[in-house]
Write a structure and sequence with these properties.
- This protein has two helices and nine strands; from the N terminus they run ββββαβββββα.
- By secondary structure, it is α+β, with helices and mostly antiparallel strands.
- It has one domain.
- It has a five-stranded antiparallel beta sheet with strand order 5-6-7-8-9.
- A hairpin with a 3-residue loop joins strand 3 and strand 4 (about 35-40).
- Helix 1 runs antiparallel to helix 2.
- The longest helix is centred in the C-terminal third of the chain and has 13 residues, at about 115-130.
- The protein is globular and about 40 Å long.
Length: about 130
């Protein structure tokens, strides 16, 4: 049985599918179409997303200037090799950027925009998602 966590954003969603008993998961961005972003251990992506969303140590990390964004790295995924970056927030909105690091290097997918309420919802859902089969 595959376990799935769907995290709704303002205009799209991030889907995390647990694919084995070792909590290996695949990440998808669902927008007008479905993008396979890559794979990683669930605990790794959970902890990194929560740390970003809570703004923990954000200003102690390297901040990258890229295509008009100020970004921190959230995760580098295996298999499909997308990179997930988060914008350094200017207000209560946070944005996750998905960059193709394999086929079309530098190509950005649609942004995942999160309001303050969505941020709280994502943290709660990530913390409480049970991955065991």
């Amino acid at each position: 049985m595959v376990k799935k966590l769907e995290l709704e954003a303002e205009h799209n969603k991030l889907v995390i599918r647990i694919v084995n008993r070792l909590n290996w998961c695949r990440l998808y961005l669902i927008d007008d179409k479905k993008y396979f972003l890559g794979a990683v251990n669930y605990e790794n992506i959970r902890d990194n997303l929560i740390s970003y969303l809570r703004k923990e140590d954000m200003y102690k990390k390297d901040i990258y200037d890229y295509k008009g964004y100020h970004l921190v790295c959230i995760a580098l995924l295996s298999e499909r090799h997308y990179a997930l970056y988060g914008t350094v927030p200017k207000d209560n909105t946070m944005v996750i950027i998905c960059e193709d690091a394999q086929e079309k290097i530098g190509h950005l997918l649609p942004e995942i925009k999160l309001s303050e309420n969505r941020i709280k919802e994502w943290i709660n859902r990530l913390e409480n998602f049970i991955t065991k089969h």
